[in-house]
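Tokens for chain A. Residues wanted.
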């Protein structure tokens, strides 16, 4: 499941769908980030199959970083 625009929640049960959803989230967030050129993308793994992708001031523009909670 994917929701919102600058913070996208992703919950899946298999790896193939996870890769597709993460890629789609990053592409969508890249489009939003290009409007300002000030934020990068932060991917947070909350637990297996549950991620959040969001724009973040903590990540330099043009970069994507992943953290695990």
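Reply:
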């Amino acid at each position: 499941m994917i929701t919102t625009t600058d913070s996208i929640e992703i919950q899946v049960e298999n790896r193939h769908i996870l890769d597709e959803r993460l890629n789609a989230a990053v592409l969508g967030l890249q489009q939003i980030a290009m409007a300002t050129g000030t934020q990068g993308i932060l991917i947070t793994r909350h637990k297996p199959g549950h991620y959040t992708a969001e724009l973040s001031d903590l990540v330099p523009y043009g970069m994507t970083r992943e953290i695990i909670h």
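The mean pLDDT is 90. Residues 7-68 form one domain.
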